[in-house]
Each structure stands twice: as C-alpha cells, then as structure tokens.
Amino acid sequence: MRVLDLGCGDGHDLLAWNVVSTDDVTGVDINGARVAAARERFPGRTYWQAAGESLPFADGSFDRVISNAGVPYMDIAKAFTEAHRVLLPGGRLSISVHRWNFTMTELRNCFPKPIPTLFRLYVIANGIIFYCTGRTVRSFTGMTESFQTKRGLRIALCRAGFENISFSEWADGRLVVEASKRKRAGQVAGVATAA
After folding, report:
1. At residue 54, what are phi and psi to the nearest 5 degrees?
2. Which of helix, strand or coil describes residue 170?
3. DSSP string spanning 48-114?
4. Which of 39, 74, 92, 176 could form a disulfide with 79 if both were Cys (CB 3.0 to 4.6 A apart)?
C-alpha cells in the first residue's frame, strides 16, 4: 500500500495507523530540518519538503493519506482538496486533530505573555470560523492554526469530495477522522473491473 504521511515532522512510528513495514511510505513536511531528521531516522521511507496545501505528487498517487495532528497547522480546506487529489479512487484519509480543550490548555499556558496570548486568541477565533464554515484564515504572520470540530471537519471533507466520514477518539483526547474518496464505477475493493 502506498501511504502519504502528511505533516510527517521528523518521522514517527505509524503503528497507530496500522501502517506496516511492507507499506511504501512517503512523508511530507514544510520544515526542511524535520524532513532531514525523518530521512535519517527512517532511511527506508521517502521524505519531501512540501506544504500540505500544494503536494508535489500526481493525481491518484496514494492508496491512503494519514496525518498525526499535522492538519491543524495547515489551510485545512486546501489540504483536504490536495489529499483528495493524490488519493486513488476508493483511497482512505485518516487523520488526528486537536480539539477545543487542547487550544484552551495552550491559552492557559501562555497567559499573561501578550504575543503568545494574542496568537492563541487567533487560534480560538479561527476554530470558530472553521466550525461555522469548514475554512480557516491565515494569521498576520502567515501561519495557520485552529482547533477542529466534527461539524467543521464534515463541511471541509464533503466540500473536498470525501464520503463515508467517521469520527472516533484516541486515549490522549485527539479526535480521529476517517473518510474515503469515491470509487469509480465498477471498482471493487480498490481494483477497477474490466468493462
């Protein structure tokens, strides 16, 4: 199976996503130093420095796209559109995201420092925008961050073309989202049948 790890950071164990050693894993992250660390840590995988909102891969390049809390730091609508584009028909998206309580903890931890507090307030406002519209807004620094809700995620995923959306929760409180790209007519279990 060809797996794209979106926002891979310095690489990590992918057992939580049921990725096995025989899977062909490609990771992308915007941070070049983290990509270099991932290459050193997991030499059997391929890593690219790239933004999740503009992936350097052809349409239908992957069977599965995963992301371990990387999507909250992206323009989520654009990242979902790109994930949908690079997935094969019938491909799966599996991501974990931050919930409201994570953002509130971060706000408490940065108070009373004014700049970090202002940024956390932006994250809260962006989370509310995401809840209402399924879209996020870049901050004045050019960064994007928000908290996510099921409602906002469902809106953004449907807009990108995903279906079969489901939610669960990991023990650490992160929200886990699964969705799939529609299969082509006549396609069975990831294989196109002859017409």
Report:
1. -150, 80
2. coil
3. EE--TTS--S-TT-EEEEEEES-GGGS-HHHHHHHHHHHEEEEEEEEEEE--HHHHHHHHHHHTT-H
4. 74
β partners of residue 40 = none
pLDDT tier at 195 (50, 70, 90 boundaries)? very low
Residue 195 lies in a domain: no
Tally of domains in the chain: 1
| 60 domain residue, yes or no | yes
Does residue 192 fall inside a structural domain?
no
CA distances, 134 to each of 66, 117, 149 (Å): 19, 24, 9
Q: What is the CATH number of the domain that holds 53?
A: 3.40.50.150
Each residue's pLDDT tens digit, 31-89: 999 999 999 999 999 999 999 999 999 999 999 999 999 999 999 999 999 999 999 99
- Which residue carries 């062909």 as its tokens? 24
pLDDT tens digit string along 153-165?
A: 999 999 999 999 9
pTM of the entire structure?
0.90
